Amino acid sequence: MTTDFIFDGPEDARVTVLLAHGAGAPMDSDWMNTLAGLLADEGLRVARFEFPYMAARRTGEGAKPPPKAEKVMADYVAAIEDLGPTNGSLIIGGKSMGGRVASMIAAEAFAAGRIAGLLCLGYPFHPSGKPEQLRVAHLQDLQVPTLVCQGTRDALGTQEEVGGYALSPAIKVMWLEDGDHDLKPRKSVSGFSAADHMGSVARGVAEWVKGLRE
């Protein structure tokens, strides 16, 4: 099955960002639409796709539950292949589960010269309410340049929790003050709005990719 994409941004951009969705929302959710638009405004080309279980919901096959991340790794690899050659560097990543799956295939894709970096938007370091079930083993020795955009109060990995993990020095974490798993802050607490943080993420990603090799 050929991967269907939604594209934003200039076709001749120096950097293309391939993004997968989170476990429960599609590639054209309000959150994904907003971020893709902001990244495009920064001059990046964005390609979004869906894992088969999510795409099946569009064809009347029912609300299939999200599979384990390991079950859709091959689908992410297929998306990279279906996307084909890009004008410049390719970054892979996604929101929550999408970013996690990308992180699980990133090392091999990077070694093959297929990608230049990894972008995780709200990485699920552990399941909600289960901080002992860490999902960081493959991140300890990761050599892929990585940017994780994380809310400081994310229930799947707070700033305090992540600070205690042994993560590879190739991983940079951009913290969004008081952000939750959707990077959304409480304005009455932090003084920031969701729009503020989404804009900061887009600018941060654009600045980060400037340092990546072609």
List the helices and strands and how they pair.
Layout: E1 6-8, E2 15-20, H1 30-41, E3 45-49, H2 52-56, H3 73-83, E4 89-95, H4 97-111, E5 117-121, E6 146-151, H5 159-162, E7 171-176, H6 187-190, H7 194-209
Parallel strand pairs: 2-3, 2-4, 4-5, 5-6, 6-7
Antiparallel strand pairs: 1-3
Helix pairs in contact: 1-7
Could you explain the architecture of this structure?
The chain is an alpha/beta fold and 214 residues long. Helix content is 31%, strand content 18%. The protein has 7 helices and 7 strands, in the order ββαβααβαββαβαα. The chain has helices at 30-41, 52-56, 73-83, 97-111, 159-162, 187-190, 194-209, and strands spanning 6-8, 15-20, 45-49, 89-95, 117-121, 146-151, 171-176. It has a 7-stranded mixed sheet, sandwiched between helices. Helix 1 (30-41) links the parallel strand 2 and strand 3 (45-49). Helix 1 (30-41) crosses helix 7.
Descriptive labels:
alpha/beta; seven-stranded mixed sheet; globular; 214 residues; 7 strands
Question: Gist?
Answer:
The protein contains 7 helices and 7 strands; from the N terminus they run ββαβααβαββαβαα. By secondary structure, it is an alpha/beta fold.
